[in-house]
TrEMBL record:
Organism classification: Bacteria, Bacillati, Actinomycetota, Actinomycetes, Kitasatosporales
Identification of the protein by name: ATP-dependent dethiobiotin synthetase BioD
EC number: 6.3.3.3
Subunit and interaction comment: Homodimer.
Binding locations of substrate: T41
HAMAP family: BioD (MF_00336)
Designated gene of the protein: bioD
Length: 241
């Protein structure tokens, strides 16, 4: 895949650290990587954004932001309140396509969930993925409530005829509760797509050398890694029906 769109089932589910893990895994395989953040919200001009964090963790990636808005809101709302131009799905698709001409892999990291609005016309990350004809990776949380949001996201992707590459758990707890352990089996069922990895809780705070070395072990072969869902399930889901 030349372009991979990465979305989440909501905020704070681990999209950025998952994007970094995918980037680090691709770099370790000798691939050139670009990371596109269409709309960065909630940061000042002098602060590090999500794309910067991916580069810090993963290494030598090309990064590009199309817009930055100071308030931590949906991009359309943040743009309107800041009296700044919004980002359109067409602009996102154009930028990703241009990056793809010079890189083996382009990762497009969304803001929030799949249908968070970029502009007042209702343009979303899903629209950009459709224009790019790119697969979408869904990052989900591990615990209670994740099945509903994951299924809703997956249903919308299928309704739009988009390719759901799979689901990655963005933060797997050190001591998973019963819901988390059961969700290892249930997430691929509700998504109708494979589970493609699980990142350990706190992975974003790892030393960068350790992060880059360990990242391939958190992701399945489809994402270039060595993570095996059956092995993970058997070791983590003990006691779950």
């Amino acid at each position: 895949m030349a372009v991979l769109v990465i979305t989440g089932t909501g905020t704070e589910v681990g999209k950025t650290v998952t994007t970094a893990a995918v980037a680090a895994t691709a770099l370790a395989a000798g691939r050139s990587v670009a990371v596109l953040k269409p709309a960065q919200t909630g940061v000042r001009p002098d602060e590090r954004g999500d794309a910067d964090e991916v580069a810090r963790l993963a290494g030598a990636v090309t990064t590009l932001e199309l817009a930055r808005y100071p308030e931590p809101l949906a991009p359309a709302t943040a743009a309107r309140r800041a009296s700044l131009p919004p980002v359109s799905p067409v602009a996102v698709a154009k930028a990703a396509a241009e990056l793809a001409t010079e890189h083996d892999l382009v990762l497009v990291e969304g803001a929030g969930g799949l249908l968070v609005r970029f502009d007042d016309e209702g343009g979303t990350l899903a629209d950009a993925a459709s224009l790019l004809d790119a697969p979408v990776l869904v990052v989900a949380s591990a615990g209670l409530g994740t099945l509903n949001t994951t299924e809703l996201t997956a249903r919308e992707l299928r309704r739009r005829g988009l390719d759901l590459a799979g689901v990655v758990i963005g933060s797997w707890p050190d001591s998973p509760d019963l819901a988390s352990r059961c969700n290892l089996a249930d997430l691929p069922v509700v998504a109708e797509a494979p589970l493609l990895g699980a990142l350990p809780a706190g992975a974003g705070s790892y030393d960068v050398t350790a992060f880059r070395a360990e990242a391939p072990g958190w992701l399945a072969p489809r994402l270039g890694g060595s993570w095996d869902t059956h092995t993970f399930h058997s070791t983590q889901a003990a006691g779950a029906p």
